[in-house]
Amino acid sequence: MNLKKLNQKIKDKTAIISIIGLGYVGLPTAVFFAQIGFKIIGVDIDKNKINSINNGNSPIKELNLDEKLKKVVELGKLTATTNFKQSIPKADFILIIVPTPTKQSKDPDLSYIENASRMIGKYLGKNQIVILESTVYPGVTEEVVIPILEQESKLKSDIDFGVAYVPERYNPGDAKYTIKKVSRIVGAENKAIAETVKNLYQNIIGKKVIIVKDIKTAEASKVIENIQRDLNIALMNELALIFERMNIDVMDVIKAASSKWNFIRYYPGAGVGGHCLPHDPYYLTKKAHELGYIPRIILAGRAVNDNMPHYIFNLLCSGLNKCEKSVKNSNIVILGASYKGNTGDLRSAPAEIVIEDLRKEEAKITIVEPYIKEDTIFGCKNIYSIDAIDKNIDVILLITDHEEFKNMDLEKLRKRLIKKDVLFVDGRRIYRPNEVREHFIYYGVGVR
Ligand code: SAJ
Asked: Could you give the C-alpha distances from 60 to 21, 79, 386, in angstroms and in order?
């Protein structure tokens, strides 16, 4: 490989970068590299997405990318295509940023990575570097991606072309931790390729780009980031259920424990959603099982978190019971469908599970979801605003910690409602029980 030539192209920003997968992470990454002057060829299998991008319109509204996207498209810095044959041969660097979901069985679904590798391999030439960003288990790059690239291209990795793993660390919708403000990890087949890839990313990363020992170390570092987070949240959820039985409010306990310098704050809630935490752990646990190790702790955390939406349903049933009402035909307004506060992202959203449980008991459900411009979400009417809440409701069920749902005027809301007892279920423990109990029957995670 002629890495000197590639490094020169990075230096004078004439390197062409092809980004495979223009989703929540790939599209912002493409815009970011284009904004600093690189020519980007975005590749995706979704024709509608491609047309939207080439017209300067972001297909993912909640990323708020339209203005930046329109500009780089108008400058000719970013074009999108479905055609690998037209894009791969022109690229110096090829980034794979495709989904790595799990199947119903919770097994990793590597089909997106395998298909992308196959299509890249068909048109891969010499002196190009392929960089995988998607979250995987240690070994996928060298045991899955590289063999497919070599087989399709009839070329040899580390000789004719290079491969590296640079885990994505992009947080969709996060204005604080933008791509620029988060350090990155690079693992590659050899030091020279790692240095070249580091030079490329250092153009868009204002923080350190750290070269680690090898590709597997880089793959492992990414997958444990989210496993650690998932497990810590599971611990808080488990503590909420323990302290509920002791009539201790877990939120008071967390607040007290937080006064210790190295206590890391996580909070119990209605469940753990998104495209990362509910899925990434299974990539490592599957590999662990294959190697004869049973990852009990990781799987126990997943089980606790996956149970939380059902726990919320049971909490609501207990609360209705206290009001001497049944779930059947009760009017329930759910505050928030998104999996995470202040975003409009429904992927693996806990709300969907709670709604399934409620629907089985024939409850009547409307949703207040201001971040998603859809009139129907999970089969329920979206009324968008708290002000549109029907006066006839029996239950307010808060599931997503959107800013709009914090500091609500509970007295004003209560006065609009006509039922004698209205239940307020706080699925994110946003409110202190006593401030709500002045107006509603209050139930919350860890409090009945
Ligand atoms: N959640 C809790 N309790 C908590 C924190 C989160 O129940 O204390 C729930 C959220 O409501 C949500 C789910 O967990 O349903 C996931 O929330 P998250 O804050 O982890 O957000 P994600 O899934 O978008 O995680 C991403 C990850 N970023 C990348 O993979 C690049 C994760 O590594 C980040 O730490 C996280 O964003 C973040 O910090 O925002």
From this structure: 13, 16, 25
